Amino acid sequence: MKAYIKHISEFYPEKSYTNDDFYKEFPEVEAQKEILSRVGVSNRYVVDEKTTSSDIAVQAAEKMFEEHDVNPKDIEFVIFCSGEFDYITPTSSAIIQNSLGLSNNVGAIDLVSSCTGFVQSLSIAKGMIEGCGLKNVLLLCVSTITKEFHKKDFNSKYLFGDAATATLVGSREEFGIGNFVFGTDGSRSDYIIIRDGGGRNPIDENSFTEEINEYGNVTCKANFYMNGAGVFLFGMKTVPKLIENILEKNKAAFDEIDYFVFHQANHLLLEILRKKIKIPANKFIIHLENTGNTVAATIPIALNSILKNGVAKSGDTILFAAFGTGLTWGGTVVRL
Length: 336
What we know:
By secondary structure, the chain is of the alpha/beta class. It folds into two domains: 2-172, Thiolase/Chalcone synthase (Peroxisomal Thiolase, Chain A, domain 1, 3-Layer(aba) Sandwich), CATH 3.40.47; 181-335, Thiolase/Chalcone synthase (Peroxisomal Thiolase, Chain A, domain 1), CATH 3.40.47. The chain is 30% helix and 24% strand. Helix 7 (228-249) packs across helix 8 (267-277).
């Protein structure tokens, strides 16, 4: 049997954070309004401090069960991809199994989320289906990254949002999920990083010392940091070659791809990549205006947008390409 993407549902926190809210909080960056508008985000959703990543993952899964009439008892494995976990141990996926009332025969693992997290998790789900004989794998990709921002970090607050997606990977006789391409460059791991608070650098008195860049943006070692220019250049150099490698590994022609769904980093980068790779605009999906960059959740959200509005249909061929934290990159071709 072959693995395929059967259903997708998405869930957002209740609180929205619009651009009007942003400029009320950061009136000092009003002068950069035109530049920031190129990011392509007008709204994003933000979790409160008491809501965990697993909380909204459960809500996304419950929404999928209801929307697509899925019996929770049919789930055989849970993959939870996130940057936030309830405890050091046990796994949050075990907590989710109990919260959803899934069978005790279900397997469950946690994966640390990154911008490439959906693609990496999807490859594992495919292996579970095609290598282990499972029929239904629940893939939960979640971002609660806004919890990690310094209160004065206007760059991150403008770009990112929180969300949870539930993707059901099922089995069928026809081709569904193709071969994967992966890449990693740990020499640039500090491009997107929270330096302190892990095993390498415990929190100390210097962790909260403010660091201000040339544009007046503030962060610290205990909070999220991104080298925006470095990540932009990384994407420009890496993604075109990634697309070539994905097509080659799947023995697919460029014109055979119906839609290209990339990690939704920001509108400006995506549009430059589209033109550089010469992808027709009607085949290229940009969908982050109302959600922001939701890390590992961006690709399933973008794919779901064209499924819900009927643009994509059964039999269409989609190319996924992801890139970011690590630095990592990866992709595949799927048929709906």
